[in-house]
Amino acid sequence: MTSTAILLATFCILLAVSLLLQAIFLRWGVKWASGSVVTLRKALLVAFVLQFAALAIGLCAYLFEARLPRQGTATVLAELVLQIVVPCAIVAISFKLTFLRGVQAWLPTLIPGIALIAFSYLVLRPYMYEAFVVPTNAMAPTILGNHAIGACPRCGAPAYASPPDAWSVRQTDGLVMICSKELKPCNVLKFTESGGPDRILVNKLITPRRWDLIVFRLPSDPSINYVKRLVGLPGEELLIRDGAVWINGEKLEPPEELRGIEYLSSIEFGNQTREAAGTSPLKLAGDECFVLGDFSAQSADSRFWEMGAPGHPPYAVPESHIVGVVTHIYWPISRWRSFR
């Protein structure tokens, strides 16, 4: 079963349980407010309408705020009022109650929502799935942060980089970007700064494999999460040479979507040239991994870290630091993608 199928199954199960619990508590709320007993079927129907209304209100608020970002506080307050008034009105109309009785009947339906939030924070997020926003472009063009977009001067394909006001630096001959087709750096003179960050979903139940995108805690500061591509596995000998990765003396062939990628063995940082770890063979211990960014010219990854986790070399990501495997870009919709 693919990660998308597992995700959809999990979502459907949670939605069904939430709907059933809301219907049960709605029946109890109507009885508490009016003394009337309603069928579970009718309660389920009204509960479905309530969830649809909540989703519609949230979507409208998001679209409104996207068009008028300066109205953020007013939008939040308006959404909060609507999320209370609209469901109470739906309950009152559906069960022929006064508005105040509708409020009373609606209040118990908050209990399943509170329980679902508790489940999300205590079980779902720590052990199953977690969402992250990617702020940087070290994994461009696979995963984008706030970014500038231009056209590759060699092939015309879209090219990406962090905007000039971020840590990406505008060179005299253009902004250094990565071509989405060739996966190689290029200098672009004309670009726009219009792209927001990708939002990714991480699965904590599946075992990471080579070439997977993983989220992990930075070895030198575990409070910071990074996303990179898993290249070197525990116990292997790794070497970066001629733009490729060699494992135990054999050249790795990357998957089809990475054909043409080159991993640099040095980068220009300010006025200095920094040599990468891995230009000479290095040995990974039985609990260590080696990670690389797809935008090799502008990625702070295992090649260039100066400090590692206690008891580990700077280039190593301990397996205990791995949070999970990136399975999807879920937002924006135009960037939706499944990786596993």
Summary, kept brief:
The protein is built from 5 helices and 20 strands. The chain is of the alpha+beta class and 340 residues long. The protein has 3 domains: 129 residues, no CATH class; 49 residues, no CATH class; 137 residues, Umud Fragment, subunit A.
Structural description of this entry:
With 340 residues, this protein is an alpha+beta fold. The chain has three domains: 129 residues, no CATH class; 49 residues, no CATH class; 137 residues, Umud Fragment, subunit A (Ribbon), CATH 2.10.109. It has five helices and 20 strands. Strands 1, 8, 9, 10, 17, 18, 19 and 20 form an eight-stranded antiparallel beta sheet that branches. α1 packs across α2 and α2 runs antiparallel to α3. The radius of gyration is 25 Å and the shape is elongated. About 1% of the residues have low confidence.
In this structure, how is the largest beta sheet organized? Answer: 8 strands, antiparallel
What proportion of the residues is helical, as a percent range? 25-40%
**Approximate strand percentage:** 25-35%
Count the E strands: 20
Tell me, rounded to a whole number, the average pLDDT. Answer: 91
The name of the CATH superfamily of the largest domain reads Umud Fragment, subunit A
> Order of helices and strands, N to C?
HHHHHEEEEEEEEEEEEEEEEEEEE
